[in-house]
Amino acid sequence: MTIDVTAPGQRPSAQPEPAPPRIIMCAPDHFEVSYTINPWMRPDEWEARRSELSGAAAAGWSALRRRLQQLGAAVELVAPRSGLPDLVFTANAAVVLDGKALVARFRHPERRPEEPHFRRFFDGLAARGLLDEVHDMPPGVCLEGAGDCVHDAGRGVFFLGHGFRSDREAAAVVADLFGEEVEPLELVDPRFYHMDTALCPLSGGEVLYVPGAFSAEGRGRLRERIGADRLIEVPEADAVRLAANAVNLGRDVVLAEASDDLKAALAERGYSVHEVPIRSFGLSGGSAFCLTLRLDRRSNRRSGRPVGGTGPGAAADAPGQPALLD
C-alpha cells in the first residue's frame, strides 16, 4: 500500500531530470589524410578524391552530431585547427571520469601538437565548471586518451590497450588517478591499433569485441572478466568496417554500418542500431566512437550504482580500492 503524505494543496516534490550525456566533438573543417600512422591511412587515395571525401566527411560528421543530439546528448565543440587533421578524433584527447580529465600523450610526432590544444580546451571546461581537475601524463608515458582506455561503467574497470600507441605503464597512472581497476590488454593486429576499434562495452553488460585484435592471453582475460555469454563477437566483415568503434547511449548503438547478423545480435539483446554515413573517416582508421568523447562518465562510486553488478567476471573489489590487473 502506498500512503500519500503530501499536504493538501502541496505539489509532490519534482524529481530532478537526469543530466543528458555530454559529448565532445570537433568539426572536420581541416580533416584530411595527409600522413600514414596506421594501416588504414592512404594519403594518395585521399588526395585523388579530396573534394568527394571532404564533402562526405563533413556531411557524415553533421549526421552523427544530429543523431547523438536526437538521442538526448548535449555536444561540446573543440575548435578545429589547420594542420591538425586528426583533431576531429576527440576520443583520443583524454581519459575523462568523475570530473577528472587525463590529457593524452601521443606516440607519433604528427599528433603531438594536438596535446596543448586539447589541454587549453579542458582548462576552459574546468573554468566553466564542467570539469573539476585536468591532469597531464607523466613524461615518457604514452596514453592516447579514451581511444586506448575504454571504461566499462558496470564493471568499474578500464580496458587499456597497449602495443601500438599506448604504453602498458599508463595503466598504473590511470588506476592511481581515477581509483578504478585497469585491465591492460595487448593489441596484436595493427588494423585495430586502439582499444576502441576492438572493444565496446554496452549498457546492459554485454561487450562487443574483435577477437583477432587480442592475443590468446587477452581473449582469455576477456572471457574471464566479462563472461563468454556477455561477449558479442564482431565478425571480420564488420570489424574491418570498424563496427566495434560504436557509441552506446542507453539501448541505442550508433555506428557507421553493420551487417544484418550483427544488427540482429544486438536487437536480440534489446539494442537499437543507428547507422550514420561516416565511412570517410575510416580512411584514417576512425569511426563513431573515435569522433566523440564522453565528458559526463561517472564511476560506480560517484553514480551510486553497485560495483560488479553486470554478471560473470564483473568487478568484485570494494569501491575506492583500485587495482592494476596482471
In brief, what are we looking at here?
This protein has helices at residues 43-48, 50-70, 114-127, 170-178, 216-226, 236-239, 260-268, 300-303, and strands spanning 22-26, 74-78, 94-97, 100-103, 133-136, 149-152, 157-162, 181-186, 199-201, 207-209, 231-233, 247-249, 252-255, 272-275, 293-294.
Question: How would you describe the overall organization of this protein?
Answer:
The protein has a three-stranded mixed β-sheet, covered by helices on one side. Strands 3-4-5 form a three-stranded mixed β-sheet, with helices on both faces. It has a three-stranded mixed β-sheet with strand order 6-7-8, covered by helices on one side. 24% of the residues lie in helices and 18% in strands. The protein has a single domain, classed as L-arginine/glycine Amidinotransferase, Chain A (5-stranded Propeller), CATH 3.75.10.10. It is built from eight helices and 15 strands. The radius of gyration is 20 Å and the shape is globular. The protein has helices spanning 43-48, 50-70, 114-127, 170-178, 216-226, 236-239, 260-268, 300-303; strands spanning 22-26, 74-78, 94-97, 100-103, 133-136, 149-152, 157-162, 181-186, 199-201, 207-209, 231-233, 247-249, 252-255, 272-275, 293-294. It is of the alpha/beta class and 326 residues long. Mean pLDDT is 90; it is low at 1-16 and 306-323. Pfam families: DDAH_eukar. This is arginine deiminase. Pathway: Amino-acid degradation; L-arginine degradation via ADI pathway; carbamoyl phosphate from L-arginine: step 1/2. Residues 313-326 have a biased composition (Low complexity). It is an enzyme of class 3 (hydrolase).
